[in-house]
Design brief:
alpha+beta; GIY-YIG endonuclease; 8-stranded mixed beta sheet; 21 strands
């Protein structure tokens, strides 16, 4: 791969990144991770590397070696901050040395096996049966929130050594920040209730504490203790900030894998989030195309293959849907692990949040792997083979006609290039022959006018699709042959109900038919195939475009008045006249002076207006 192609490939990857927080991983030609970074906006941040927006000296060395850039979407910037550190620890990338240190983030540990549990800050999460909450990168806010909790929930704060050697309550008890279980009789049930309150707050359920502080703030304000009220207000702000920065809660060091799918037609991506100690430790994604089986079968096969490769099987696996073979699959995973394995489909809570995050990553990987051009390439190859085209079509145009009982007959043409609408190629046509509905002649006129322009600009489509049947195709071929242009043309018949009315959209239950030149029988398109869905999309786009044009033409005719044909009376004067008089009938009854004044025109033009409008009694006859 040349240098230009390498950079172009990376820029195309980055252009499909979401404008969401997350982590990006840069890889070299050996697929080794050489740099990891975090971002509030993945697309904008990574773009700066290739636009000269990052002036660090090391960036030049990174850009020489990077060949691929992957991304992992996170819920917020804080999650990205934590995941960045974990991935750096895992991969030890060459250019992240400056980010490495031995200091871990803070976690809150609660030993529920203790007689009188307390909240303690630790930097290492261990598999010791305790509850862990974190990690928290914002230590000031964490310590402040714990201080606020102590003012509302009187749990003990001393170490075990101090607790077991006290003979009388300490100062914390005197200022009502501890219930004194070291020396005094305390109801264990009441203490457990206080502990549960503290746990709810750490889980992000700060509403009860916010309400309590709010009551204190209002009371202080009523008593004119404004400094105290301000302190309560600041504590409420800290609680709210703390809640928004909460990371996923780790309950007793739980480990789980989270599977999610994203699918469009026969293209699928699978995302697997690895969660260890309650936080996302990594993400893997897999892509599949031309998939003809359902999501359940995809998921079952993916689970088998994922863990057959020797990966660690966690005690819990989160899935997006129920599986028919769940029991058999669970038993096999338990046999491989040697311990119990749970397969869960969450509907709410932390596991549901993790599932949504995995789905977001699956969608992002889908957009990265299956860009529009790559997907369309397969569609175009199918069309070329199915319609016996001379070449794979890149530019496809579709013609449609619309009329109302033979009046306001119009045509329209839409253009697609590499599977995407080419707006500059859209055209609208007023049909020259009006009076009776004749779709055949109208199609011929539109095709002739389109191909005449193509002769001038050499802008010839690879495939022209006519919305209609064999008759419309025949007229389109006549126009082509009269001009001597070698353009491929087919006709696609709209699916019809029993009453013969056309039905638009991909939800039609009957198959679509395509008529080819020289073929007796039309080709029946299979529902759900990529090329069928694409042709329906093109046809529906042409239909909507021509209908919109027809409504505008018809609307202009309905609202057209005799004033439109009077020289010197433009849109602004017409607007003033209608604002003043409201209707043509009232204008006819006005004097020359009134018309001249309202329309801001000379009397000679006002006389001409009244002359064209006719006498009032004449208009009524």
């Amino acid at each position: 791969m040349t240098e230009d192609l390498r950079l172009q490939h990376i820029k195309e990857q980055v252009s499909r990144f979401p404008e969401l927080p997350g982590v990006y991983l840069m890889r070299d030609g050996n697929n080794e991770v050489i740099y990891i970074g975090k971002a509030k906006n993945l697309r904008n941040r990574v773009k700066t590397y290739f636009s000269g927006g990052d002036g660090r000296a090391s960036i030049e060395f990174i850009l020489r070696r990077v060949t691929e850039v992957d991304s992992i979407v996170t819920e917020n910037e804080h999650h990205a901050f934590v995941l960045e550190r974990d991935l750096i620890t895992k991969y030890k990338p060459r250019y992240n040395i400056r980010l490495k240190d031995d200091k871990a983030y803070l976690n809150v540990r609660i030993n529920t096996n203790a007689a009188w549990p307390r909240l303690e800050l630790v930097r290492q999460v261990r598999d010791d049966g305790a509850l862990y909450f974190g990690p928290y990168t914002f230590s000031y806010e964490l310590r402040t929130v714990l201080d606020v909790i102590k003012k509302v929930v009187p749990l003990r704060t001393c170490t075990d050594n101090v607790f077991h050697n006290r003979t009388r309550p300490c100062l914390e008890y005197q200022i009502k920040r501890c219930c004194g279980p070291c020396c005094l009789e305390v109801d264990p049930d009441q203490y457990k209730e206080w502990l549960d309150q503290a746990i709810h707050i750490l889980q992000g359920n700060v509403a009860p504490l916010e309400m309590e502080l709010g009551r204190h703030m209002e009371r202080a304000s009523e008593e004119l203790r404004f400094e105290d009220a301000a302190e309560y207000r600041d504590r409420i702000d800290i609680l709210q900030n703390f809640k928004t920065r909460q990371d996923f809660v780790s309950t007793k060091g739980d480990a789980r894998d989270v599977f999610a799918l994203y699918r469009e037609e026969s293209f699928v991506t699978l995302s697997v989030l690895t969660v260890r100690y309650g936080r996302v430790a990594g993400s893997e994604s897999y892509s599949f195309q031309n998939v003809q089986v359902g999501e359940e079968e995809i998921l079952e096969q993916a689970l088998w293959q994922y863990y057959e490769a020797g990966r660690e099987i966690p005690p819990e696996i989160v899935l997006p849907l129920e599986l028919k073979e769940e029991q058999f699959l669970r038993e096999e995973l338990e046999y491989q692990r040697g311990k119990k394995v749970e397969l869960v489909v969450p509907k709410r809570g932390i596991k549901f949040r993790l599932l949504k995050l995995a789905e977001l990553n699956a969608k992002q990987q889908f957009l990265t792997r299956f860009d529009a051009e790559a997907r369309y390439s397969l569609v175009a190859q199918s069309l070329a083979k199915l319609f016996h085209l001379r070449q794979v079509p890149r530019r496809i145009e579709c013609v449609d006609i619309s009329n109302f009982q033979g009046s306001d007959i119009v045509g329209a043409l839409v253009s697609f290039f590499d599977g995407r609408p080419l707006r500059s190629g859209y055209r609208r046509y007023r049909i020259s022959q009006q009076g009776k509905p004749d779709d055949f002649s109208s199609v011929k006129e539109v095709v002739r006018r389109r191909l005449e322009k193509a002769l001038e600009s050499e802008d010839i489509p690879d495939l022209l699709v006519i919305d209609g049947g064999r008759g419309q195709l025949s007229k389109a071929l006549e126009a082509r042959d009269e001009l001597g242009i070698a353009v491929e043309i087919v006709a696609m018949a709209k699916m019809r109900t029993e009453k013969g009315k056309a039905v638009y959209g991909s939800e039609a239950s009957k198959p679509e038919r395509v008529f080819l030149p020289g073929s007796v029988e039309p080709i029946v398109l299979q529902r759900g195939e990529e090329h069928t869905l694409f042709l329906q999309r093109v046809r529906d786009e042409a239909h909507n475009y021509v209908i919109d044009f027809h409504r505008k033409v018809r609307g202009r005719r309905v609202h057209k008045s005799v004033l439109d044909d009077i020289p010197g009376v433009g849109p602004e004067r017409r607007k003033r006249l209608f604002q003043e008089f409201g209707s043509l009938q009232v204008m006819r009854e006005a004097s020359v002076e009134e018309i001249a004044r309202a329309g801001r025109m000379p009397k000679s033009l006002a006389e001409k207006v009244l002359s064209c409008l006719g006498e009032p009694d004449e208009a009524m006859s």
